[in-house]
Each structure stands twice: as structure tokens, then as C-alpha cells.
Amino acid sequence: EKEHDAIRAKFHILVEGTDIPPPIKHFKDMKFPQPILDYLKTKGIHKPTPIQIQGLPVALSGRDMIGIAFTGSGKTLAFSLPLVMLSLEEEKKMPLVRGEGPFGMIICPSRELARQTYEGICVMAEFLEKDGYPKLRPLLCMGGISMQEQAHVMAGGIHLVVATPGRLQDFLEKKKFNLDLCKYLCMDEADRMIDMGFEDDVRNIMSYFISQRQTLLFSATMPKKIQDFAMSALVQPVVVNVGRAGA
Ligand code: ADP
Ligand code: MG
């Protein structure tokens, strides 16, 4: 415990909540498959950033989480890697069949962010597949891509979705997704999402998800509005807050 607190202090990581999983200082101690470690190395990513040191163990543990860290601090990896791992586990339990999935979803406030997040996951999936792991099928769900194309990918079965709120709501209303097995829901840039007026949309989106899920919320700032929202939407979350001094 003392050792964990020392690591948190060193990296300016503030935590709130009960039974908080220990921080982990090295990727190699996080039980990732070798191709994921290779992927990180190729990207020039050698050591986890503070939000990753504490956020990855929390997200991988299945706990609800609020992750607060400044822009450029590596939040994307902190919520993408756990969903890739979850997808692999599901695939190992039972191979995906046509029309099945998703097991998890990441919601981003803009198309640009959704695309970046999706592309990062696709590269991880390539590294895994090259190394003999099952092929993961992600779906990018957003405006600007034809519905037909998205429906085609979906029909083949999908492990995970990266979406923007507008197109996602559209799909949910039309019952295009089966969310019975979708147990990971992450909202990126929650502050921006709320600023852009998506709060009601996000609440509506959440109502489609099973209650037995893991919910994660990431943000650069944590104004009162987001805090209230998070407390009403998450269950016993672990709050991981990295100050600027942690840079
Ligand atoms: P945020 O979402 O917190 O603003 P990003 O996840 O977009 O930050 O990451 C910013 C940049 O840092 C990206 O180019 C990403 O590849 C890189 N990055 C992420 N994690 C690490 C790390 N542990 N070490 C070095 N670079 C990293
Ligand atoms: Mg980000």
C-alpha cells in the first residue's frame, strides 16, 4: 500500500475511491500479449504516462473509472488497450459469429477523434493478427461514412465500436446494434461532449446499454457538471486525476 502511494506521489497521480487497483510502472508488468508490447515499441512508446500507470490497471480490472488528465497525456491508450484485451478474451471464449457483438464501445465527440481512436485500435489488431492472435473486428460508426458500409461490417460481426454520438443514436434508435453483450462503455472528452450540448444524447445513449457494464469517462477537465453526470452514471468509480505537474 505504502509502495503504491509512493508511486502515485511520484507521478502526481491523485486517486479517489475504494479498493483501488495498484499502479503499474511498466507495460511489461501489465500482462499484455507480446504483439501489444511490440506495437507500443514501434510507436516509440516505452513507458506508461501517469494516467496509464494508474488508469490501465483500473480499466483492466473492470472497475468504473473517471480519468482526468491534460491533453496529450495518453488517455486514448488508457481506454483503447483494455477494450482490445476484453475483445480478445471474448473471442477466446467463443469466436464471433455473423451479426454478433459488440462487446464494447468508445464514444468520441468528433469524427476526427473517433477516426484516430479507431485507427489506433486497427493497428493494434494488425499486430495481434500477425502474431497468430484472432482477427479483431472493430467498427467505426459515424457520419460521413455510408450507412451501407457500416451495416456491411456489422453484419459480419464486430468486437468493438468507436462512435460519435449522432450516428450512434441513429443506429440505436433503428435497433441496428445488439448491446446484450456490450459490457464496456467509454466516453472520451466528456467535458467537450457536454460543452457541445451532447449531455441529453449521451444519457439517451446510455439507456440502451445493459446495466451490468463497465463505464469509463475520460476528460481533460472535471467541471461540476461532469462530476454530477459521472456520479449519476457510474457505479463506485475510481477517480484517477493527474495534475499538470505530472507531465
Ligand atoms: P490525450 O487523449 O490525453 O490528449 P493522446 O492519447 O491523444 O492524448 O496521446 C497523445 C500522443 O502521445 C499520441 O501521439 C500518443 O501516441 C502518444 N503517447 C501515448 N502514450 C504514450 C506513452 N506512454 N509514451 C509516449 N507517447 C505516448
Ligand atoms: Mg484524447
Give me the strand/helix succession: HEHHEHEHEHEHEHHEHE
Cα(first) to Cα(last) distance is 24 Å
Rg computed from alpha carbons, rounded to a whole number of angstroms? 17 Å
Structural class: alpha/beta
Largest sheet: 8 strands, mixed
How would you sum up the global shape?
globular
Query: What spatial order of strands do you see in the largest sheet?
Result: 1-8-2-7-6-3-5-4
Number of strands: 8
Domain Helicase ATP-binding: 56-240
Motif (Q motif): 25-53
Family: Belongs to the DEAD box helicase family. DDX41 subfamily.
Protein name: RNA helicase
Describe this structure in words.
Belongs to the DEAD box helicase family. DDX41 subfamily. This is RNA helicase. 41% of the residues are buried. The mean pLDDT is 95. The protein has 247 residues and is of the alpha/beta class. The chain is globular. Helix 2 packs across helix 5. It has an eight-stranded mixed β-sheet. The two termini are 24 Å apart. The structure holds adenosine-5'-diphosphate and magnesium ion. Adenosine-5'-diphosphate binds next to helix 4.
